[in-house]
Description:
The chain has 1 helix and 10 strands; from the N terminus they run αββββββββββ. By secondary structure, the protein is α+β, with helices and mostly antiparallel strands. It folds into 2 domains: 1-32; 37-159. It has an 8-stranded antiparallel β-barrel. It is extended. The N and C termini lie far apart (67 Å).
Amino acid sequence: MKKTFILIAFIVTLFIFSCNQGAKKSQNSSANSVSLVNTCYIAVFEKDTAYLKTQTDTSGKITGDLTMNYGEVQPNSLEKVINVGTIAGNFRGDTLFVDYTHTSGSINKQGFKNPLAFLKVGDNLVLGVGQIETHLGRSYFVKDKAIDFAIGRFKFVPMECEK
């Protein structure tokens, strides 16, 4: 009985010690990935404007905010459309693929989540237009269909970020 108690105590001690070691490693790795690079962009097309602020972490993951302000009130619309939301994604080659989670206007509080693709040309980002399909409530660019960056409305140029 005494040997069983000692064996169980030893196993519990090893388990607790190993759990604490993993927590220290994850704290160190999260401290290393805290450094973010902020970049801001603006795009103007006729009466429409868009603002993009990105944060890139050391692993290459990109997050940020995107606001698209459409200048004209659309026919049969009660208000001017302003899409405000966040992006999250990463680069694949020279193309930034993100999920854009946003609301559209102040009357419609429903949230939307759409894929976006930006082609990096020098320091600029060009928003692409592609065919999107939805499967099980999630939207994707259609596989094997090209994204057209030539007809994109917004061409983002770098600007100084507001403090």
